[in-house]
Amino acid sequence: CTGSRDNTLLLWDVETGQCVERASVSRNLVTHLCWVPREPYILQASEDKTIRLWDSRGLQVAHMFPTKQHIQTHCEVSVDGHKCISCSNGFEGEGCEATPAFSHCLWMDRDL
Q1: Which of 70, 107, 105, 108 is nearest to 86 (CA)?
Q2: Repeats (WD): which ranges (predicted)?
Q3: 85, β-bridge pairs
Q4: Which end of the chain is less crowded, N or C, counting CB atoms within 10 A of the terminal residue's CB?
Q5: pTM of the full predicted structure?
Q6: pLDDT (tens digit, 9 = 90+) per residue, 67-89?
Q7: What are the backbone angles phi and psi of residue 50, rounded to the nearest 5°?
Q8: Using an 8 Å Cβ cutoff, are 44 and 56 in contact?
Q9: CATH superfamily, domain at 2-105
């Protein structure tokens, strides 16, 4: 999966090199993407100050976290896939936040 500053996410078939899904969200300037281990989900950070969880089966937003105070520059998911964290670079000495989120917000189809 790739994302860009043109507000799009593209899901690729790695064997053929063909784009198989395309999604676009207004003002969604993608800054980082990461796959959730062993799940069909992609976590995405954005310049619109949001973190989105995408379901790769159809490339639809499965969950959107509450809007943060600053532009989100990076996101990661724990190895077990139960936790995620995002961070921002802040602005004029403020921010530089790291925000944890927990699985009960994310994986509604998994019994934890």
Answers
A1: 70
A2: 1-22, 23-55
A3: 76, 100
A4: C
A5: 0.79
A6: 888 888 889 988 888 888 888 87
A7: -120, 160
A8: no
A9: YVTN repeat-like/Quinoprotein amine dehydrogenase (2.130.10.10)
